[in-house]
Every structure is written in structure tokens, then in C-alpha cells.
Sequence to fold (235 residues):
Amino acid sequence: EPVRQQRGVVAGAGADFQHPVSVAHVECFAAAGRSLGVRELHDPPPTELPFEDPRHGRPLDWRDFRAWRLHNIDARDLPRGADRVRILAEDRTTDAQGWLSVSGPVVRDVVPLRQALDVQQPVLIDWTMSFLFPCRDSYPQVAGGVASSPRLMVTPPPGDWGMAVDPDWGGVFAGATMQSRRIEVPTRLRDAPGHTWGHLYAVNYGIQRDAYTTTRHRDLISGTRGDPPYPFEEH
Fold:
């Protein structure tokens, strides 16, 4: 269901492979410099855990903390009148080689996913995620041996990989990932902060999108003669 449009503060955080971001404080200040409140931001607990060996426990590297994670504060949780934000990040890990990085906070609008998908079309939805969008038909067209370039990609939880863009699996849209830079649009499941539902990527191309001319001709080939030679150069 659509949710009401919200505004909030969001900050990103990254850490080393095994250790999480310990704690990140967000302090809000009024214009006069008076502190209005402090909010602690923690990584939400994951909804799925790996198998725990009864003798050895879980492997230490079962969770990868190298990727950036988003910490959100809803607009309703911000102190009234706050117009300044300061982030204080503290690394409480014991690993001497560990590191912690925090981005600056930004204000963003939260809109339903369906509304975001309607803004930029066509949208390439990986087949494993297509069951969540049974009524959407704004897919990139594939016709005449040519696949049009998607503007958005919806991919499963592992990332921007999928059968549709993998040449080893006969991916029709393999060229889209080879010729583009994908920027993840922050998303979250409402009331389920620790659940990774999938990913939404905005696809940017370094060249003009679908700027080519095509011509078509038809060849009639008898089924008894077999397939003709492969017309393209093998790579």
C-alpha cells in the first residue's frame, strides 16, 4: 500500500569486514546552538542468521560490514525546530586494523516504490523479483535482436547481479551492466528495518541511450538444413 510522503535525515556508514559500526550519535541543534536531543543509530539485527555449528558456532565472517549501510531518522522523530545535525561516530571494536567511515547526513523524501518505478521507465525487474510486481508491464523491449536499455533495475538481495544481465546465463541485458554505472537508490521495508528485500538501482550510461538505427531483413531457412553458421565473432 502507498505510504504517506515523509522527510527524514539519513546517514551512511561503513566498517571493516567482521565488525559492525558500534554506535553513531546524531545530535540536533537549534539555530541558537542549543542542543535539542540525541538519537542513537544502530545496525538493525538481521532477520536471517546462518547455521550455527553446535561446536564451533557461526563463522566470524558470516556478515560483511564493508558495504555502506543507511541509518534513518523519520521526520516524526526529529526534535521540533532542529536545523543542524552533527554526527559523532565511535568505533568500539578491538581489531587494530578495523576502520570506520561515516558520510554526511542528507534530507530525503520517502515515496512508495511503485511511485519511484513510474518516474523512470523502462524498468528491468529480475525474474526472481518479478512475482512481487505482477501488474507491471513497463519492461525494456526485446525485439528484432535488440534489447532496449533500462533506466531502473530491481534486483534480488545479493546485489546488481541477475540472470538477465549475466552473459554466462544468456543474459539478454548483459550489455546494460557493461556500458553503465549503477547507483543504488536507498530503499527499506516499512516496519522491517533488518530485512533486505532487494535493491533498486538507477542506471546511468556514459553514452547516449538507445541512439542507433536498425534495419531488418528476413531469411527463410529450412529446418532440415540445420542452423546456419554463427554470424558474430566469438569472444
Summary: The radius of gyration is 23 Å. Residues 1-23 have pLDDT under 50 and may be disordered. The CA atoms of residues 44 and 191 lie 11 Å apart.
